[in-house]
Amino acid sequence: MPIPQAASLPELFRAICDTRPAAVAVVDQDTSLTYAELDAAAEAVASRLVTRGVRRGELVGLQTDRSAAVVIGILGILKAGAAYVPLDPAYPEARLTTMAADAGLRFAVADPEHAVKCGLSEHQAVPTTADGAAESVDRVVERDDAAYVIYTSGSTGRPKGCVVTHGNVLALLETALPLFEVDRRDRWALFHSTSFDFSVWELWGALATGGTVVVVPQQAALSPEDFLDLLIRERVTVLNQVPSVFRYLDLAFDEADRPALDVRYVIFGGESVDLEVLRKFVAKFPEERRPTVVNMYGITETTVHVTFKLLDEQALTGPARSPIGVPLPHLTVELRDEEGRPVPPGEPGEMWISGAGVAAGYLNRAELTAERFVTLEGRRFYRSGDLARRSVNGELEYVGRADQQVKLRGFRVELGEIESVLRGCPEVRDAAVTVVTTGAGAQLLAACVVPHDGSVTAAVRRHAAAMLPRHMVPDRYVTVEALPLTPSGKLDRRALDGLVASGRR
Protein backbone atom coordinates (compact mmCIF):
# COMPACT_ATOMS: atom_id res chain seq x y z
CA MET A 1 0.00 0.00 0.00
CA PRO A 2 1.21 3.58 -0.57
CA ILE A 3 2.33 5.43 2.54
CA PRO A 4 1.88 9.15 3.35
CA GLN A 5 4.51 11.50 1.96
CA ALA A 6 6.70 12.84 4.75
CA ALA A 7 10.00 14.64 5.25
CA SER A 8 10.96 12.58 8.31
CA LEU A 9 10.01 9.49 10.26
CA PRO A 10 8.28 11.49 13.05
CA GLU A 11 6.25 13.29 10.38
CA LEU A 12 5.26 9.95 8.86
CA PHE A 13 4.23 8.65 12.28
CA ARG A 14 2.22 11.81 12.95
CA ALA A 15 0.32 11.38 9.66
CA ILE A 16 -0.68 7.83 10.61
CA CYS A 17 -1.42 8.79 14.22
CA ASP A 18 -3.79 11.57 13.12
CA THR A 19 -5.90 9.09 11.17
CA ARG A 20 -5.77 6.17 13.64
CA PRO A 21 -5.34 7.58 17.17
CA ALA A 22 -7.41 4.84 18.85
CA ALA A 23 -5.94 1.92 16.91
CA VAL A 24 -3.46 -0.37 18.66
CA ALA A 25 0.09 0.60 17.66
CA VAL A 26 2.23 -1.65 19.84
CA VAL A 27 1.77 -4.60 22.17
CA ASP A 28 4.15 -6.54 24.37
CA GLN A 29 3.59 -9.22 26.98
CA ASP A 30 2.35 -6.64 29.51
CA THR A 31 1.27 -3.55 27.57
CA SER A 32 -0.97 -2.40 24.75
CA LEU A 33 -0.65 1.16 23.46
CA THR A 34 -2.82 2.97 20.94
CA TYR A 35 -1.23 5.31 18.43
CA ALA A 36 -2.27 8.28 20.58
CA GLU A 37 -0.81 6.70 23.73
CA LEU A 38 2.42 5.80 21.94
CA ASP A 39 2.65 9.34 20.61
CA ALA A 40 2.20 10.82 24.09
CA ALA A 41 4.81 8.50 25.62
CA ALA A 42 7.31 9.30 22.88
CA GLU A 43 6.66 13.04 23.26
CA ALA A 44 7.49 12.71 26.96
CA VAL A 45 10.84 11.12 26.13
CA ALA A 46 11.55 13.78 23.51
CA SER A 47 10.69 16.52 26.00
CA ARG A 48 13.08 15.07 28.59
CA LEU A 49 15.88 14.87 26.02
CA VAL A 50 15.37 18.45 24.83
CA THR A 51 15.22 19.67 28.45
CA ARG A 52 18.56 17.93 29.06
CA GLY A 53 20.02 19.91 26.16
CA VAL A 54 20.03 17.30 23.38
CA ARG A 55 20.63 19.06 20.08
CA ARG A 56 19.25 18.35 16.63
CA GLY A 57 21.44 15.72 15.01
CA GLU A 58 22.97 14.55 18.30
CA LEU A 59 23.45 10.83 18.87
CA VAL A 60 21.56 9.31 21.80
CA GLY A 61 22.04 5.78 23.08
CA LEU A 62 19.13 3.34 23.17
CA GLN A 63 19.29 0.51 25.68
CA THR A 64 15.92 -0.89 26.67
CA ASP A 65 14.51 -4.33 27.24
CA ARG A 66 12.38 -6.07 24.61
CA SER A 67 9.11 -4.33 25.38
CA ALA A 68 7.03 -1.38 24.23
CA ALA A 69 9.81 0.75 25.74
CA VAL A 70 12.01 0.13 22.70
CA VAL A 71 9.38 1.64 20.38
CA ILE A 72 8.76 4.56 22.77
CA GLY A 73 12.50 5.17 23.02
CA ILE A 74 13.13 5.18 19.27
CA LEU A 75 10.22 7.51 18.55
CA GLY A 76 11.17 9.80 21.43
CA ILE A 77 14.76 10.16 20.25
CA LEU A 78 13.66 10.85 16.67
CA LYS A 79 11.04 13.38 17.79
CA ALA A 80 13.80 15.24 19.65
CA GLY A 81 15.62 15.60 16.34
CA ALA A 82 18.34 13.20 17.48
CA ALA A 83 19.51 9.84 16.10
CA TYR A 84 19.49 6.64 18.11
CA VAL A 85 22.46 4.34 18.69
CA PRO A 86 21.37 0.81 19.70
CA LEU A 87 23.26 -0.52 22.72
CA ASP A 88 22.15 -4.12 23.10
CA PRO A 89 22.09 -5.06 26.82
CA ALA A 90 23.35 -8.52 25.84
CA TYR A 91 26.64 -7.08 24.54
CA PRO A 92 29.73 -7.17 26.80
CA GLU A 93 30.44 -3.99 28.74
CA ALA A 94 33.75 -3.50 26.92
CA ARG A 95 32.01 -3.33 23.56
CA LEU A 96 29.21 -1.10 24.86
CA THR A 97 31.65 1.40 26.33
CA THR A 98 33.67 1.41 23.09
CA MET A 99 30.55 2.14 21.03
CA ALA A 100 29.28 4.82 23.42
CA ALA A 101 32.68 6.56 23.44
CA ASP A 102 33.05 6.39 19.66
CA ALA A 103 29.58 7.88 19.20
CA GLY A 104 30.27 10.59 21.78
CA LEU A 105 27.09 9.83 23.68
CA ARG A 106 26.04 12.28 26.37
CA PHE A 107 22.72 10.56 27.09
CA ALA A 108 21.02 7.22 26.64
CA VAL A 109 17.37 6.26 26.81
CA ALA A 110 17.94 3.52 29.34
CA ASP A 111 17.56 2.45 32.93
CA PRO A 112 20.31 3.97 35.12
CA GLU A 113 21.99 0.61 35.79
CA HIS A 114 22.14 -0.10 32.06
CA ALA A 115 23.63 3.31 31.30
CA VAL A 116 26.46 2.63 33.74
CA LYS A 117 27.40 -0.49 31.75
CA CYS A 118 27.93 1.75 28.73
CA GLY A 119 30.36 4.01 30.55
CA LEU A 120 27.72 6.66 31.28
CA SER A 121 26.56 7.86 34.68
CA GLU A 122 23.12 7.28 36.15
CA HIS A 123 22.38 10.98 35.55
CA GLN A 124 22.90 10.50 31.81
CA ALA A 125 20.05 7.95 31.64
CA VAL A 126 16.66 9.09 30.35
CA PRO A 127 13.72 6.81 31.26
CA THR A 128 10.81 5.86 29.01
CA THR A 129 8.31 5.67 31.86
CA ALA A 130 5.80 8.53 32.04
CA ASP A 131 5.96 11.02 34.88
CA GLY A 132 3.17 13.41 34.04
CA ALA A 133 2.24 15.45 30.99
CA ALA A 134 5.05 16.70 28.76
CA GLU A 135 5.19 19.69 26.47
CA SER A 136 5.10 18.91 22.78
CA VAL A 137 8.47 19.03 21.06
CA ASP A 138 8.35 20.93 17.79
CA ARG A 139 11.73 20.10 16.25
CA VAL A 140 12.32 20.37 12.53
CA VAL A 141 13.67 17.08 11.17
CA GLU A 142 14.58 16.66 7.51
CA ARG A 143 15.32 13.75 5.19
CA ASP A 144 19.10 14.30 5.31
CA ASP A 145 19.20 14.20 9.12
CA ALA A 146 20.60 11.04 10.73
CA ALA A 147 17.96 8.63 12.07
CA TYR A 148 20.22 5.98 13.60
CA VAL A 149 23.78 4.72 13.81
CA ILE A 150 24.16 0.94 13.90
CA TYR A 151 27.56 -0.52 14.72
CA THR A 152 28.72 -3.42 12.60
CA SER A 153 31.78 -5.63 12.83
CA GLY A 154 35.11 -4.12 11.78
CA SER A 155 38.09 -6.01 10.32
CA THR A 156 40.58 -4.09 12.49
CA GLY A 157 38.94 -5.18 15.72
CA ARG A 158 37.14 -1.85 16.06
CA PRO A 159 33.39 -1.81 15.34
CA LYS A 160 32.23 0.83 12.86
CA GLY A 161 29.07 2.90 13.10
CA CYS A 162 26.97 3.26 9.95
CA VAL A 163 25.00 6.52 9.73
CA VAL A 164 21.55 6.08 8.16
CA THR A 165 19.28 9.05 7.45
CA HIS A 166 15.52 9.60 7.62
CA GLY A 167 15.54 9.84 3.84
CA ASN A 168 17.23 6.46 3.54
CA VAL A 169 14.50 4.78 5.61
CA LEU A 170 11.66 6.69 3.95
CA ALA A 171 12.92 5.67 0.50
CA LEU A 172 12.85 2.03 1.61
CA LEU A 173 9.31 2.29 2.94
CA GLU A 174 8.01 4.28 -0.02
CA THR A 175 9.26 1.77 -2.59
CA ALA A 176 9.29 -1.60 -0.80
CA LEU A 177 5.98 -1.57 1.09
CA PRO A 178 3.87 -1.23 -2.11
CA LEU A 179 5.32 -4.57 -3.21
CA PHE A 180 3.37 -6.22 -0.37
CA GLU A 181 -0.36 -6.33 0.25
CA VAL A 182 -0.05 -5.05 3.81
CA ASP A 183 -2.29 -2.56 5.57
CA ARG A 184 -3.62 -1.43 8.95
CA ARG A 185 -4.98 -4.92 9.73
CA ASP A 186 -1.51 -6.48 9.79
CA ARG A 187 0.42 -7.36 12.91
CA TRP A 188 4.21 -7.34 12.51
CA ALA A 189 6.47 -9.26 14.90
CA LEU A 190 9.36 -7.11 16.13
CA PHE A 191 11.64 -10.11 16.58
CA HIS A 192 15.13 -8.71 16.04
CA SER A 193 17.40 -6.64 18.26
CA THR A 194 17.62 -2.94 17.41
CA SER A 195 21.34 -3.61 16.85
CA PHE A 196 20.30 -5.53 13.71
CA ASP A 197 18.71 -3.26 11.09
CA PHE A 198 16.08 -5.87 10.18
CA SER A 199 14.30 -4.31 13.19
CA VAL A 200 13.95 -1.01 11.28
CA TRP A 201 11.88 -2.76 8.62
CA GLU A 202 9.82 -4.64 11.21
CA LEU A 203 9.05 -1.50 13.21
CA TRP A 204 8.37 0.97 10.42
CA GLY A 205 6.68 -1.54 8.14
CA ALA A 206 3.98 -1.73 10.80
CA LEU A 207 3.82 1.93 11.81
CA ALA A 208 3.94 3.31 8.25
CA THR A 209 0.88 1.27 7.29
CA GLY A 210 -1.11 1.84 10.48
CA GLY A 211 -0.59 -1.73 11.64
CA THR A 212 0.45 -3.15 14.99
CA VAL A 213 3.97 -3.83 16.27
CA VAL A 214 4.11 -7.04 18.31
CA VAL A 215 7.27 -6.84 20.42
CA VAL A 216 8.83 -10.27 20.94
CA PRO A 217 10.25 -10.62 24.48
CA GLN A 218 13.74 -11.99 25.02
CA GLN A 219 12.57 -15.40 26.19
CA ALA A 220 10.41 -15.93 23.12
CA ALA A 221 13.21 -14.73 20.83
CA LEU A 222 15.47 -17.44 22.27
CA SER A 223 12.89 -20.24 22.34
CA PRO A 224 11.32 -21.41 19.06
CA GLU A 225 8.50 -23.07 21.01
CA ASP A 226 7.69 -19.87 22.92
CA PHE A 227 7.94 -17.82 19.74
CA LEU A 228 5.52 -20.14 17.96
CA ASP A 229 3.08 -19.73 20.86
CA LEU A 230 3.42 -15.94 20.55
CA LEU A 231 2.74 -16.04 16.78
CA ILE A 232 -0.47 -17.93 17.47
CA ARG A 233 -1.58 -15.91 20.50
CA GLU A 234 -0.88 -12.49 18.97
CA ARG A 235 -2.18 -13.44 15.51
CA VAL A 236 0.98 -12.21 13.80
CA THR A 237 0.52 -11.80 10.06
CA VAL A 238 3.97 -10.51 8.96
CA LEU A 239 7.01 -12.48 10.05
CA ASN A 240 10.60 -11.50 9.24
CA GLN A 241 13.30 -14.10 9.76
CA VAL A 242 16.95 -14.96 9.22
CA PRO A 243 17.04 -18.38 7.49
CA SER A 244 19.21 -20.10 10.10
CA VAL A 245 16.85 -19.00 12.90
CA PHE A 246 13.77 -19.93 10.87
CA ARG A 247 14.95 -23.55 10.65
CA TYR A 248 14.40 -23.94 14.40
CA LEU A 249 10.97 -22.32 14.20
CA ASP A 250 10.07 -24.75 11.41
CA LEU A 251 11.08 -27.69 13.62
CA ALA A 252 8.97 -26.33 16.50
CA PHE A 253 6.05 -25.95 14.08
CA ASP A 254 6.28 -29.65 13.20
CA GLU A 255 6.69 -30.75 16.81
CA ALA A 256 3.56 -28.78 17.74
CA ASP A 257 1.65 -30.73 15.07
CA ARG A 258 1.51 -27.77 12.67
CA PRO A 259 -0.99 -25.49 14.43
CA ALA A 260 -3.02 -22.91 12.48
CA LEU A 261 -1.19 -19.63 11.92
CA ASP A 262 -2.37 -16.20 10.78
CA VAL A 263 0.99 -15.48 9.10
CA ARG A 264 0.47 -14.13 5.56
CA TYR A 265 4.07 -13.16 4.77
CA VAL A 266 7.40 -14.71 5.73
CA ILE A 267 10.19 -12.34 4.68
CA PHE A 268 13.78 -13.52 4.74
CA GLY A 269 16.97 -11.50 4.99
CA GLY A 270 20.40 -11.50 6.58
CA GLU A 271 21.87 -14.57 4.88
CA SER A 272 21.30 -17.10 2.09
CA VAL A 273 17.94 -18.88 2.13
CA ASP A 274 17.65 -22.65 2.37
CA LEU A 275 15.31 -23.48 -0.52
CA GLU A 276 14.85 -27.09 0.57
CA VAL A 277 13.58 -26.01 4.01
CA LEU A 278 11.21 -23.49 2.42
CA ARG A 279 9.86 -26.00 -0.10
CA LYS A 280 8.92 -28.35 2.70
CA PHE A 281 7.55 -25.52 4.87
CA VAL A 282 5.09 -24.08 2.38
CA ALA A 283 3.90 -27.58 1.46
CA LYS A 284 2.66 -28.02 5.04
CA PHE A 285 -0.15 -25.48 4.51
CA PRO A 286 -3.39 -25.89 2.60
CA GLU A 287 -3.16 -23.77 -0.52
CA GLU A 288 -5.74 -21.21 0.65
CA ARG A 289 -3.72 -20.51 3.86
CA ARG A 290 -0.23 -20.78 2.40
CA PRO A 291 1.94 -17.79 3.41
CA THR A 292 3.72 -15.77 0.75
CA VAL A 293 7.48 -16.24 1.05
CA VAL A 294 9.84 -13.44 0.01
CA ASN A 295 13.63 -13.16 -0.02
CA MET A 296 15.18 -9.69 0.44
CA TYR A 297 18.96 -9.33 0.25
CA GLY A 298 20.29 -6.30 2.06
CA ILE A 299 23.00 -4.69 4.14
CA THR A 300 23.17 -1.99 6.81
CA GLU A 301 25.00 0.45 4.53
CA THR A 302 22.14 0.40 2.02
CA THR A 303 19.32 0.58 4.59
CA VAL A 304 18.04 -2.89 5.36
CA HIS A 305 16.92 -4.20 1.94
CA VAL A 306 18.30 -3.97 -1.58
CA THR A 307 16.39 -6.59 -3.58
CA PHE A 308 13.03 -8.34 -3.71
CA LYS A 309 12.36 -11.93 -4.78
CA LEU A 310 9.04 -13.73 -4.49
CA LEU A 311 9.89 -17.34 -3.69
CA ASP A 312 7.10 -19.00 -5.63
CA GLU A 313 7.08 -22.64 -6.67
CA GLN A 314 9.22 -21.89 -9.71
CA ALA A 315 11.87 -20.15 -7.60
CA LEU A 316 11.82 -22.86 -4.93
CA THR A 317 12.47 -25.56 -7.51
CA GLY A 318 14.63 -23.57 -9.93
CA PRO A 319 18.38 -23.86 -10.58
CA ALA A 320 19.44 -20.74 -8.62
CA ARG A 321 20.78 -21.72 -5.18
CA SER A 322 20.23 -18.32 -3.60
CA PRO A 323 17.89 -16.17 -5.73
CA ILE A 324 17.66 -12.58 -4.53
CA GLY A 325 15.63 -11.14 -7.40
CA VAL A 326 15.73 -7.57 -8.63
CA PRO A 327 16.73 -4.27 -6.98
CA LEU A 328 14.06 -2.30 -5.18
CA PRO A 329 12.79 0.67 -7.24
CA HIS A 330 14.93 3.23 -5.38
CA LEU A 331 18.19 1.33 -5.93
CA THR A 332 20.36 0.00 -8.72
CA VAL A 333 22.83 -2.88 -8.52
CA GLU A 334 25.81 -3.13 -10.85
CA LEU A 335 28.16 -6.11 -10.93
CA ARG A 336 31.81 -5.13 -11.21
CA ASP A 337 35.22 -6.81 -11.02
CA GLU A 338 38.08 -5.96 -8.64
CA GLU A 339 39.09 -3.04 -10.87
CA GLY A 340 35.58 -1.60 -10.86
CA ARG A 341 34.78 -2.66 -14.42
CA PRO A 342 31.38 -4.17 -15.34
CA VAL A 343 31.51 -7.95 -15.63
CA PRO A 344 30.12 -9.85 -18.65
CA PRO A 345 26.56 -11.24 -18.39
CA GLY A 346 26.41 -14.44 -16.35
CA GLU A 347 29.76 -13.83 -14.65
CA PRO A 348 29.99 -13.22 -10.89
CA GLY A 349 30.88 -9.72 -9.78
CA GLU A 350 30.83 -7.52 -6.70
CA MET A 351 27.54 -5.76 -6.10
CA TRP A 352 27.94 -1.99 -6.35
CA ILE A 353 24.75 -0.39 -5.05
CA SER A 354 23.54 3.15 -5.73
CA GLY A 355 20.38 5.08 -5.02
CA ALA A 356 18.40 6.68 -2.22
CA GLY A 357 19.07 3.85 0.23
CA VAL A 358 22.85 4.28 0.30
CA ALA A 359 23.77 5.48 3.80
CA ALA A 360 25.65 8.64 4.71
CA GLY A 361 28.81 6.71 5.59
CA TYR A 362 30.71 5.58 8.67
CA LEU A 363 30.80 7.67 11.82
CA ASN A 364 34.24 9.22 12.45
CA ARG A 365 35.78 6.98 9.75
CA ALA A 366 36.42 9.28 6.77
CA GLU A 367 39.08 7.02 5.24
CA LEU A 368 36.93 3.90 5.42
CA THR A 369 33.91 5.83 4.13
CA ALA A 370 35.92 6.98 1.11
CA GLU A 371 37.05 3.40 0.48
CA ARG A 372 33.61 1.76 0.59
CA PHE A 373 31.33 4.62 -0.54
CA VAL A 374 32.71 5.62 -3.93
CA THR A 375 31.60 8.10 -6.58
CA LEU A 376 31.90 6.98 -10.18
CA GLU A 377 30.58 8.78 -13.24
CA GLY A 378 28.68 11.19 -11.03
CA ARG A 379 26.92 8.45 -9.02
CA ARG A 380 27.59 7.41 -5.44
CA PHE A 381 27.92 3.67 -4.85
CA TYR A 382 28.40 1.41 -1.89
CA ARG A 383 30.82 -1.42 -2.61
CA SER A 384 29.12 -4.29 -0.84
CA GLY A 385 31.86 -6.92 -0.94
CA ASP A 386 29.11 -9.40 -1.86
CA LEU A 387 29.28 -11.37 -5.08
CA ALA A 388 26.32 -12.09 -7.36
CA ARG A 389 25.62 -13.09 -10.94
CA ARG A 390 22.83 -11.86 -13.19
CA SER A 391 20.72 -14.43 -15.04
CA VAL A 392 19.36 -14.07 -18.54
CA ASN A 393 16.06 -12.76 -17.14
CA GLY A 394 17.89 -9.97 -15.31
CA GLU A 395 17.49 -11.39 -11.81
CA LEU A 396 20.35 -11.71 -9.34
CA GLU A 397 21.70 -14.81 -7.63
CA TYR A 398 23.81 -14.35 -4.51
CA VAL A 399 27.18 -16.09 -4.81
CA GLY A 400 29.06 -15.26 -1.59
CA ARG A 401 31.54 -12.87 -0.01
CA ALA A 402 34.48 -11.35 -1.83
CA ASP A 403 36.40 -11.09 1.44
CA GLN A 404 36.37 -12.78 4.82
CA GLN A 405 33.28 -11.03 6.08
CA VAL A 406 30.45 -13.52 6.66
CA LYS A 407 26.74 -13.46 7.37
CA LEU A 408 25.95 -15.46 10.50
CA ARG A 409 22.47 -15.70 12.02
CA GLY A 410 21.60 -12.43 10.35
CA PHE A 411 24.61 -10.48 11.60
CA ARG A 412 27.44 -9.37 9.35
CA VAL A 413 30.64 -10.48 11.01
CA GLU A 414 34.25 -9.67 10.19
CA LEU A 415 36.31 -12.76 10.98
CA GLY A 416 39.30 -10.45 11.32
CA GLU A 417 37.69 -8.65 14.25
CA ILE A 418 37.17 -11.90 16.15
CA GLU A 419 40.72 -12.99 15.36
CA SER A 420 42.05 -9.65 16.63
CA VAL A 421 40.17 -10.08 19.92
CA LEU A 422 41.39 -13.67 20.39
CA ARG A 423 44.99 -12.59 19.82
CA GLY A 424 44.49 -10.10 22.64
CA CYS A 425 44.13 -12.96 25.12
CA PRO A 426 47.43 -13.19 27.07
CA GLU A 427 47.54 -16.97 26.66
CA VAL A 428 47.20 -16.83 22.87
CA ARG A 429 50.06 -16.49 20.40
CA ASP A 430 47.95 -16.56 17.23
CA ALA A 431 44.40 -17.35 16.16
CA ALA A 432 42.20 -17.73 13.09
CA VAL A 433 38.45 -18.07 12.79
CA THR A 434 36.24 -19.79 10.23
CA VAL A 435 32.61 -20.83 9.79
CA VAL A 436 31.58 -24.48 9.82
CA THR A 437 28.22 -25.99 8.87
CA THR A 438 26.86 -28.88 10.91
CA GLY A 439 25.05 -31.87 9.46
CA ALA A 440 21.79 -30.24 10.51
CA GLY A 441 22.62 -27.13 8.48
CA ALA A 442 23.44 -24.82 11.41
CA GLN A 443 26.38 -22.45 10.97
CA LEU A 444 28.92 -22.10 13.80
CA LEU A 445 32.03 -20.03 14.39
CA ALA A 446 35.14 -22.11 14.98
CA ALA A 447 38.54 -20.88 16.14
CA CYS A 448 41.99 -22.38 15.66
CA VAL A 449 44.19 -21.15 18.50
CA VAL A 450 47.97 -21.27 18.81
CA PRO A 451 48.76 -21.07 22.56
CA HIS A 452 51.89 -19.81 24.22
CA ASP A 453 51.87 -22.96 26.33
CA GLY A 454 49.40 -25.84 26.80
CA SER A 455 45.64 -25.82 26.35
CA VAL A 456 43.96 -22.42 26.56
CA THR A 457 40.37 -23.15 25.55
CA ALA A 458 38.76 -22.07 28.84
CA ALA A 459 40.80 -18.85 29.03
CA VAL A 460 40.04 -17.95 25.41
CA ARG A 461 36.32 -18.60 25.88
CA ARG A 462 36.22 -16.26 28.89
CA HIS A 463 38.21 -13.60 27.06
CA ALA A 464 36.01 -13.77 23.95
CA ALA A 465 32.79 -13.64 25.99
CA ALA A 466 34.04 -10.55 27.83
CA MET A 467 34.97 -8.68 24.65
CA LEU A 468 32.52 -9.75 21.95
CA PRO A 469 28.73 -9.89 21.45
CA ARG A 470 27.34 -13.38 21.88
CA HIS A 471 26.83 -13.89 18.13
CA MET A 472 30.57 -13.29 17.56
CA VAL A 473 31.90 -15.64 20.25
CA PRO A 474 33.28 -18.84 18.63
CA ASP A 475 31.33 -22.00 19.38
CA ARG A 476 34.27 -24.37 18.82
CA TYR A 477 37.98 -24.17 19.61
CA VAL A 478 40.83 -26.25 18.25
CA THR A 479 44.33 -25.91 19.69
CA VAL A 480 47.07 -26.14 17.06
CA GLU A 481 50.85 -25.77 17.07
CA ALA A 482 50.78 -23.37 14.12
CA LEU A 483 48.25 -21.95 11.69
CA PRO A 484 48.34 -23.44 8.18
CA LEU A 485 49.91 -21.18 5.53
CA THR A 486 49.93 -21.13 1.75
CA PRO A 487 53.27 -21.18 -0.14
CA SER A 488 53.07 -17.38 -0.33
CA GLY A 489 52.84 -17.13 3.44
CA LYS A 490 49.14 -16.26 3.66
CA LEU A 491 46.69 -18.03 5.93
CA ASP A 492 45.45 -21.17 4.19
CA ARG A 493 41.76 -20.99 4.98
CA ARG A 494 40.94 -24.21 3.15
CA ALA A 495 43.43 -26.09 5.34
CA LEU A 496 42.04 -24.21 8.35
CA ASP A 497 38.57 -25.57 7.57
CA GLY A 498 40.04 -29.07 7.46
CA LEU A 499 41.66 -28.65 10.86
CA VAL A 500 38.42 -27.47 12.41
CA ALA A 501 36.40 -30.27 10.80
CA SER A 502 38.75 -32.93 12.09
CA GLY A 503 39.30 -31.35 15.48
CA ARG A 504 42.95 -32.32 15.05
CA ARG A 505 45.50 -30.63 17.28
TrEMBL record:
PROSITE patterns: AMP_BINDING. InterPro entries: AA_adenyl_dom, AMP-bd_C, AMP-bd_C_sf, AMP-binding, AMP-binding_CS, AMP-dep_synth/lig_dom, ANL_N_sf. Pfam families: AMP-binding (PF00501), AMP-binding_C (PF13193). Coiled coil: none annotated. SUPFAM superfamilies: Acetyl-CoA synthetase-like. Residues 15-363 form the AMP-dependent synthetase/ligase domain. Residues 417-490 form the AMP-binding enzyme C-terminal domain. This is Amino acid adenylation domain-containing protein. It comes from Actinoallomurus vinaceus.
